[in-house]
Please model this.
Amino acid sequence: MTLQRASRPVAQCIRQSSSTLHARTLATTTIEPSSTDAAPPPPSDPFSHTRNPFTASTPAAEKQLAQQKQRPVGSRRRRAALSSTTQIPFTQLPYQAFQEARAFLQEDRREKLEAIGLQRVKLVRLQDQVVVGEQDGEVERRKQREKDNRVRSMGRRLEEMKVMADINDPMVKKKFEDGQGDMTKPIYRHLADAQWRSYKRQILVQRLTQMNVIPDVLPALEPIVSTGLAFPTTSSTTPARSRLKRVQHGDFVSSTLSSQPPTLWIQPYNKGTRLCTVAVVNPDVPNVEKDGFDHRCHFLAVNIPISPINTRVRLGELGSTSENKGDVLLPWLPAYAQKGAPYQRMSIIVLEQPSPTLTPILTTLLGAVAESQELDAESASQDPRYNVRDGFNLRSFVDRYGLKAVGADLFRTKWDEGTAGVMQQAGIVGWDVEFRRKRVEPLPYQRKASERYR
Amino acid sequence: MTLTHPKAPSMATLACLQSALSTLRTTHHAVPAITHITRRKASHQAQGRANGAKDGAGKRLGAKKTGGEYVVPGNILFRQRGTHWFPGDNCFMGRDHTIHAGSPGYVRYYQDPARHPKRKFIGIVFEKTQSLPQPTHAARRRQLGMLAYQMPTPPQPEIATDETSAAPTKVSDGTTVSIRNSKMNPGGLQLTLGPGYQYRQSNYEIGRSGDKKEAAANAKGKTIRAFAKFKPGDRFAAWRKSVVRVARSRERKVMGRGGKGGAKKKN
Model:
């Protein structure tokens, strides 16, 4: 009797597994269940003499695996567990508490999906409401503002609910941690954003504030998109195949490396494609006459489309290929610092172009995505304030075109062996100029008569 | 007849008596002046402690340059124990918390709640009309403090061609020298110049040399091992190995560490 009772959940589980093997369980993605429940590969055939990299856990087995020139996959504990257990997919493991919990979570998810449906209906009904005002315009405007606020907050709540529906799914968590998350889904975007904010964004903001990029280049900057930077290196053996060297925020980059235009990855965490402007500004150009520093723009490009799935921007190939869309106003100038001058900060600012008058939130909720306004590259390239590199004022550029700073990256450059060569190749005047500290006259003080008080 | 109380003799009378008797006195003891009454000190504590903290000489701490004074880099602005004042713009702090000027300019004493709600700062501005703290979100005021000169011997710029790598080259200070086929280097080793101006093999090469030699010998079907590879269960091979080992160790003991050791042992 007790045995029957104990076996009932297991039997239920096995019955369920046969029926739900091809049905969607908790995941919202459309990936096949075979890859969703990534069943571990079967153990090796007892008559074969080759070792399985997934199940070799004893020292002798690992040695034989090394002789096969194969590396073990996963930790030794995992390999031992896999070799000693049968091949059951994770979601079908016959543990009562686990299956009860799964059932509870599935029920919770069903409730949340219903709530999402209701919220959608409410939102559409609210948007269909027409604002009517009695007096000339004051009341009408106020009511319109209130309606917009309500729509915006309801939209935010809807996005939250979409994330809440999938946040408890262990397969979603596993897929995200394996790097297989689909960035078109809000849950994976949410998880990626949380991961970025937990560490890398803090590092970036620390670098930007400690190195004073924030007050010098822009008055304020809250990064919303994550950035990554890499410079191409050409190896002498295979010049055709260029590899990329990643640069961390604030790193010193050698002049030979930064002579080539880099690749910038821009990862937004909200859905839709938007047009961005990328500006590389150096605020540390020494000016001896003014006894201060000038700004110089090393790169400027507008109308670059960025989305959660298309994140790579090759600054050297913008506008030339169909993959890299964008209008380059100022092509890449190699970063350089003259001898004796302090190190120069090269700040890469990502600016989002404004969207047209229709508020983007409304259209995103209905499914369509508001397009950002295209910046007129022709008129911008003719503007005398923004087509010169020296004295480029990014604050003025941002104000003129109504841009919003959404992301930034930073690297530094200083004089090294290759700088003179890079400057000569780029035709920059001043490769043989060096800076030396100005001698400051000491303050006059009363000199005593005796030699002892020199 | 009235009874008169005996009166004490007057001071004058006593003085006369004292002077009269002093001539008859044989010894001259120090007689305390009767006019001066001795007084005892009030308490022992007022004399001070033996092991207490003593106040030292004053260290001349405090401000050395007032607000608005013109200073040059290095000038001491404030001497203190601990940080009553913190270094602000263009100032730095020495190892004993002394605040120095970092650039030529005018001294300013100020508070910057954005930087810290309670701290007091000493900073330097470049012009007399400027004040601190600097307005928030504004580009910082900075001074270059340098002059541009023509380089006396301009560097030879290495123009990066396709042959030379634009990659970050590994800076290897060691120049590789292989003195092959020579008496000094019979093994044909790859010797690099290391720190201390020593031509030597690198440590990892030395460590791997044994493995390399074994692999080379194995390729020819031989081995550099003194004893054959251990086969568990082969007692005859194990006995032969131990016999050789025992004989070798006995020989080594007889010989001693050096020639002298052996000779000594014999005696």
In short: Chain A is about 35% helix and 20% strand. Chain A touches chain B through 48 residues (CB under 8 Å). The radius of gyration of chain A is 30 Å.
